[in-house]
Specification:
Layout lengths: L8 H13 L9 E4 L3 E7 L5 E7 L5 E6 L2 E3 L2 E7 L8 E7 L2 E2 L4 E2 L14 E2 L25 E3 L22 E4 L1 H5 L13 H4 L2 H10 L3 E4 L3 E3 L3 H6 L9 E7 L8 H14 L3 E6 L16 H9 L2 E2 L2 E5 L14 H17 L4 E4 L7 E2 L2 E2 L4 H8 L7 E4 L19 E4 H11 L6 H8 L3 H4 L9 E4 L8 H4 L35 H19 L4 E5 L27 H5 L1 H16 L13 E2 L3 E2 L1 E4 L18 E6 L15 E6 L5 E4 L8 E7 L18 E4 L3 E8 L3
Parallel strand pairs: 12-13, 12-25, 13-16, 16-19, 19-22, 22-23, 23-24, 24-25
Antiparallel strand pairs: 1-2, 2-6, 3-4, 3-7, 5-6, 7-11, 8-9, 10-11, 14-15, 17-18, 20-21, 26-27, 28-29, 29-30, 30-34, 31-33, 32-34
Helix pairs in contact: 10-11, 14-16
Length: 713
């Protein structure tokens, strides 16, 4: 039995009793599992010579400690019968083993370690010298500075909860921050604002449903901490991309009981017909680089859990830009990740996952491998095989950009969609061909190995970068509040300020910005693939030009709900677009548009020049051409469609001047009827007045119009 000098007699006696009571238990599952008769503790460490279980009181005082009695291969385990331990009790580990950084090992029994499989944590990280190794610090005990894991009872009354299970073709994703979305929401009770329970409020769910959203994508809710450099500046990690425990809900969004409240949120969202997708961070941890703190994995088995520099194992491969890279090639790490995902899917009822810097998870010794063992395991696991899987298909390591290379059934954030649409609407030349590809589902990226248009997650904005309102109001980032001399954040935003940088009271500038917002929204929601909206873009939320607000836990980042009423016409425009998308299956096809003939000798899609003829090869390279027509054949007659729905014609004019566009010819008795017109302040096309069918139209500068073919009587 190991106790520190000066340990109170009560702790010494309790430790003796704990050691006497400990039984071998079972080597799985990982973590602390309440059985009703006691708790089974397990921890994986290949390098450990001994693993000590430390039990703590609710106030953080050590109650007892004793070594885990059994090692099965590289899993250390032991069973503690009740009432010595029960749900609600806190615990941590000390790992005894080699401390040899030059060989990649960093075991140090002076450092108290958080269970990497913890389901709930208690306490805060305190940035003290005792968290670090090195001369004068390595021998300092870190107890009291590290959060503790908490034993949980997994039971929860889910009632008749069911996932809405929306097909990918019908999915509309809404990316939001749990705290920021409701922190200023007037219909949420003050004590619930900014919490899981705030997101579960009926007024919030009713709004999302009325908008036409089918899935909320929650920014990181895995337990996370603020980096030391931010703490020293008086800032916090607001976004949450700095994980501490992969299977524990973040404490920051709980009123009191994070596990129960997260489940209540999921249950309420499901009852409202909304799926829950979690943004998960398995690519790195909060332990940082070689100079970072020892909190968990680093002290448990550094060489197993992290990718180390082969020539110098004291250093970490940094494919994430965050100091370390998780070694997902290692089977034990894969098992920990899969256990975490199963926990969120089975016990927390999460419907899908968006993987931050997902290329890391497919890396082996040769680089990215689309056949990586972790990907195969995800597809084969019964609990995970039918969850929605979304990759951020890049990291910052060699060959880190892998858009289009993930296997079935993954979908991927499509940054080429984002950049092409932004470039087109700010009026860049030579973009039409790329824009056509993006509108049609990005077949150049995804038409291989059995993938569908739904593999493309289309986005114009996301948490990382400008909001939609800022995209049309700023050409340069304004991140001074972050304390990095405005050097952080993207410098290449493909944004346009419409003539004035930042706030303006010029009516012409404001009208143009509003039109550009409508153009971008309409393009996003009328494209093939799966659209993703950034929360608040539908009512022109702003971050005042900050395109990297990761450390701004304040009104700069929180959603300003007063804008929802002030910009109600834009909300209604978004709602109409989503209603149209829902009603017209040709806008959410499961096969790529080919331009080929269909039944009745109609093309599924054709591309039109403003002169009134189909685009020819040379037309795609015509200097100065910034206008395009997209004729999409109707899917009328398909289940759930309008009985008399006609073909759709989308006209885009991204030029700075109005343009006459000759419409595709129609059979006798048919006519083109406009429904969407972004040149109008409310996005509604003016009622048709001409007695005869319109043959050509004058497209306003920087505008988009959507027509439907009306058949004659």
């Amino acid at each position: 039995m190991t106790v520190l000098d000066g340990t109170p007699a009560a702790v010494v006696n309790a430790s003796a009793a704990l050691r006497e009571a400990l039984m071998p238990g079972a080597p799985s599952p990982l973590g602390a599992t309440w059985t009703g008769a006691g708790v089974n503790f397990t921890l994986y460490s290949r390098c450990a010579e001994r693993v000590e279980l430390c039990l703590y009181e609710a106030n953080g005082a050590l109650r007892a400690s004793a070594p885990l009695p059994k090692r099965s291969r590289d899993v250390w385990h032991g069973f503690v019968p009740a009432p010595l331990v029960a749900p609600g009790d806190c615990y941590a580990y000390r790992v005894f083993g080699p401390y040899a950084p030059e060989q990649g090992q960093r075991c140090n029994a002076a450092k108290l370690l958080l269970d990497p499989a913890a389901r709930e944590i208690r306490g805060e990280l305190n940035w003290r010298d005792c968290l670090f190794d090195g001369p004068g610090r390595g021998e300092l005990d870190s107890a009291g500075a590290v959060p503790l894991a908490r034993v949980v009872d997994a039971a929860f009354d889910w009632g008749n909860d069911r996932s809405p299970s929306a097909p990918w073709r019908d999915t509309v994703i809404y990316e939001l921050h749990v705290k920021g979305y409701t922190k200023l929401h007037p219909a949420v009770p003050p004590e619930r604002r900014g919490t899981y329970l705030g997101l579960a409020e009926p007024a919030v769910i009713d709004y999302l449903r009325s908008l036409g959203i089918t899935a909320v994508e929650l920014m990181p809710c895995q337990a996370f901490v603020t980096e030391r450099f931010l703490h020293e500046r008086g800032l916090v990690n607001y976004w949450g991309y700095n994980p501490l425990a992969w299977s524990a809900p973040a404490l920051q969004y709980a009123c009191g009981e994070p596990l129960r409240e997260f489940r209540q949120m999921v249950k309420a969202l499901h009852a409202g017909g909304l799926e829950v997708i979690m943004d998960v961070v398995f690519n790195h941890t909060a332990e940082g680089d070689a100079d970072g703190p020892t909190l968990s994995l680093k002290g448990i088995d550094n060489a197993v859990y992290y990718r180390l520099v082969t020539e110098d194992p004291a250093r970490y491969e940094n494919y994430t830009g965050c100091g370390n890279t998780v070694n997902a090639e290692e089977p034990a790490v894969q098992a920990l990740i899969l256990d975490s995902l199963r926990w969120w899917a089975e016990e927390m009822h999460v419907d899908g996952f968006r993987f931050d810097l997902a290329t890391v998870l497919g890396r082996d010794g040769r680089g990215f491998n689309r056949h990586a063992a972790l990907f195969a395991a995800l597809r084969a696991d019964p609990a995970l095989a039918y969850t929605k899987l979304i990759a951020e298909p890049w990291d910052v390591g060699p060959d880190g950009y892998q858009l289009g290379q993930f296997p079935v059934p993954w979908a991927e954030w499509n940054d080429r969609y984002r950049d092409t649409v932004r470039a087109a609407w700010r009026g860049e030349d030579g973009v039409l061909g790329r824009l056509a590809e993006r509108l049609a589902g990005s077949s150049d990226l995804f038409r291989h190995r059995g993938r569908k248009p739904q593999a493309s997650i289309n986005l114009v904005t996301a948490h990382d970068g400008f909001t939609l309102a800022d995209l049309v109001s700023y050409e340069h980032r304004h991140n001074e509040a972050n304390g990095e001399d405005n050097r952080d954040g993207h410098g290449h935003n493909l944004s346009w300020n419409c003539g004035v940088e930042g706030p303006s009271d010029d009516p012409g500038v404001l009208a143009l910005r509003a039109r550009q917002i409508r153009n971008l929204l309409a393009t996003l929601l009328l494209s093939q693939g799966v659209p993703m909206l950034l929360a608040g873009d539908e009512f022109a939320r702003t971050q005042q030009g900050n395109n990297n607000a990761y450390c701004q836990d304040n009104e700069l980042s929180w959603v300003d709900w007063s804008l929802c009423e002030r910009n109600g016409a834009l909300v209604e425009f978004t709602r109409r677009l989503l209603g149209l998308r829902r009603a017209r299956p040709e806008l959410r096809r499961e096969t790529f548009l080919k331009g080929g003939l269909r039944a009745g000798r109609a093309h599924d899609v054709s591309w039109w020049h403003p002169a009134g003829h189909e685009m020819r090869d040379a037309d795609w390279h015509e200097p100065g051409l910034r206008s395009l027509g997209v004729l999409i054949a109707s899917a009328a007659g398909a289940p759930g469609t309008q009985p008399a729905a006609g073909d759709l014609l989308l006209l885009v004019n991204a030029a700075p001047a109005a343009l006459e566009f000759r419409l595709p010819p129609l059979p006798d008795g048919a006519a083109w009827l406009a429904g969407i017109d972004t040149a109008a302040a409310d996005g509604r096309a003016a009622p048709a007045r001409a007695a005869a069918p319109v043959r050509s139209v004058l497209l306003a500068d920087r505008s988009l119009v959507l027509y439907e073919k009306q058949r004659g009587a």
